[in-house]
Amino acid sequence: MFELRRLRLLHELALRGTIAEVAAALAYSPSTVSQQLSLLECEAGASLLEPDGRRVRLTAQGRLLAEHAARALELDEAVRAELSTAQHAAEIVRIAVMPTVAEAVVPRALTALGTQHPNIRVHMVEIPPEKALFELQARTFDLVVAEQYPGHTRELRDGIERTLLGSDPVRIAVPPHSPAHELSDLRDHPWAMEPQGTTVRRWAVQQCRAAGFEPDVRFEATDLIAHARLVAAGHAAAMLPDLVWTGDRDSVRLLELPDSPVREIFAATRTASRDDEALAAVLTALADALADHEPR
């Protein structure tokens, strides 16, 4: 019989690519991971790994067993969810969210869950969607809240399904006394944007190019609150979603972008957890909290 823990290590290696990354993700030493994979080879009666320079890679048999390991882990997850529901036990739901969702949506959702489902404990981590969606597939999280901008659909992954939570308008924020009335008026204005390589940075740059100019990006930050403060202080313009404005937004002036774009806010979960009642309750609470958000 195969031990599930060793099957998970093989599954993680198929996802992450190196023993060192598997060890770091699961808080093992690399030698422990190697030892357990060697034992899995004995259980399988086949070579699962082969040298690849200083690293290892999966053999054909290794890839085959890794596919079966993914299905075994899905079944284990589904069984545990059913048992937890039947026993009415307290259930932990691990979520990863974007900063704007952490600030504007999660607190309201937690309040609703505390009243309606006091047996659910939510553990939240704030990390970029790109990393969070990968870790969802690796079972580090149970639910990820991410965004996608018009024309920039995020990668679709096997075994992962999405639920649209709502839409979030994106507008131009400029200092209160800026004379600008539209995007093209800001061709010579400094900009605050997210770092290069991110989906939202590419999207924002394309908006400027469509308006006939290359943006003068002087400030880069993943924290959109920092963007808002730079705008309020008169140092930059920025394209910001409405979820940024959890408090007073009178410190800036908002302009509409061409075609009034919105970003989609969606929740990603594993297909194996489709029937998990606690996860469904968290999804509902997040969607309701997003729908109730009203920037002031």
Structure description:
- With 296 residues, the protein is α/β, with parallel strands linked by helices.
- The chain folds into 3 domains: 4-83, Winged helix-like DNA-binding domain superfamily/Winged helix DNA-binding domain (Arc Repressor Mutant, subunit A); 90-167 and 263-292, Periplasmic binding protein-like II (D-Maltodextrin-Binding Protein, domain 2, 3-Layer(aba) Sandwich); 168-261, D-Maltodextrin-Binding Protein, domain 2 (3-Layer(aba) Sandwich), CATH 3.40.190.
- The protein has 10 helices and 11 strands.
- The chain has helices at 4-16, 19-26, 30-44, 60-87, 99-104, 106-116, 129-137, 199-210, 224-232, 277-292; strands spanning 49-52, 55-58, 91-97, 120-126, 143-148, 160-174, 190-193, 216-220, 238-241, 253-255, 262-270.
- Strands 3, 4, 5, 6, 9, 10 and 11 form a 7-stranded mixed β-sheet that branches. A two-stranded antiparallel ribbon has the order 1-2.
- Helix 6 (106-116) crosses helix 10 (277-292).
